[in-house]
Amino acid sequence: MGWVNHLKDAGFTVNTTDVPSVTPIKTENGVPERVSSCHTATVDGYVIEGHVPAEDIKRMLNERPDITGIAVPGMPVGSPGMEGPNPQEFPVISFDDDGELAVYNVHKP
After folding, report:
1. Per-residue model confidence (pLDDT) at position 26
2. Which Pfam families match (predicted)?
């Protein structure tokens, strides 16, 4: 799992759990459908959805914004764990308990 290895390489301790359906996990953690992706994680009270770069997770943990979490919608080529030819620019989106979305960061190839 490329994204998990990316997080481990950045110093995070990662525990993974395979589940038959990720939908209940996303719902339970308040992930809006508009930013839904393949992985859902929690860290220190925040939700991480999709292939979020470790640098953005560290920034969020340092700044402690009043949000539910951050997400990389879909599976853009060039995001951690999705390396490949023709990497894409991709946003990291913050979301809160009211479903409000905002651009948290943008990564360019």
Report:
1. 95
2. DUF411
| Residues with pLDDT less than 50, the chain | none
**Which own/partner contact pairs does 60-69 have at CB distance under 8 Å and 24+ positions apart?**
60/104, 65/94, 66/96, 67/94, 67/95, 67/96, 68/29, 68/30, 68/95, 68/96, 68/97, 69/29, 69/30, 69/31, 69/94, 69/95
What is the reported pLDDT for 52?
Answer: 98
Kindly give, in sequence order, each residue whose CB lies less than 8 Å from that of residue 27, ignoring residues fewer than 6 positions away: none
First to last CA, the chain: 21
Domain boundaries defined on the chain:
2-107
For the entire predicted model, the pTM comes to 0.93
